[in-house]
Amino acid sequence: MQWTKISNLKSYSGFDGSASEMERTNFDSTAKEFILGLFDTDAFSIEVDQDNSDAGQLALMTALVTGVAKSFKLLLPNGNTATFTAYVKKFNSQGAVDQAIRRSAELRISGSITWA
């Protein structure tokens, strides 16, 4: 697979999903009873310094507008990687006096994350 780098990455957060809870309490129960459902990988977000000529940032904007799920790969400084499929839900811009313009992308992960 050909990956498109998203340049000027400042920070990321995510991979903090959780499993759903299903109540199984019945008349034989002495207290509430639960089982866990499927794990939801939830969201992943990144912050970048805005660059309207960067192919990766342009790809994020295109994915936001088209609503098509894309494959993502996070390469960590230690060489480990996380790959996943996600939808781009937001790609907003923030600016302030004496600061670079920053953009934040919020991704909704669909499916599991593969760590390598």
Short overview:
This protein is mainly β and 116 residues long.
Give a structural overview:
This protein is 10% helix and 48% strand. The protein is mainly β. The protein has a single domain (9-115), classed as Beta Barrel (Elongation Factor Tu (Ef-tu), domain 3). The strands form 2 sheets. Strands 1, 4, 5, 6, 7 and 8 form a 6-stranded antiparallel sheet that branches. The chain has a two-stranded antiparallel sheet with strand order 2-3. The two termini are 16 Å apart.
Number of helices: 1
The poorly predicted ranges are none
Q: Estimate what percentage of residues fall within beta strands.
A: over 45%
Shape summary: elongated
The secondary-structure element order is: EEEEHEEEE
Number of strands: 8
Portion in helices:
10-25%
What is the alpha-carbon Rg in Å?
Answer: 18 Å
Largest sheet: 6 strands, antiparallel
Arithmetic mean pLDDT: 96
Q: State the domain count.
A: 1
In terms of structural class, how would the helical and strand content be classed? mainly beta
Q: Using the coordinates shown, work out and report the CATH topology.
A: Elongation Factor Tu (Ef-tu), domain 3
Q: What is the CA–CA distance across the termini?
A: 16 Å
Please write the CATH class name. Answer: Mainly Beta
The quaternary state of the protein chains shown equals: single chain
CATH level-two architecture:
Beta Barrel
Topology diagram in text:
Layout lengths: L8 E6 L3 E6 L10 E7 L2 E7 L5 H12 L3 E6 L5 E14 L7 E8 L4 E2 L1
Antiparallel strand pairs: 1-4, 2-3, 4-7, 5-6, 6-7, 6-8
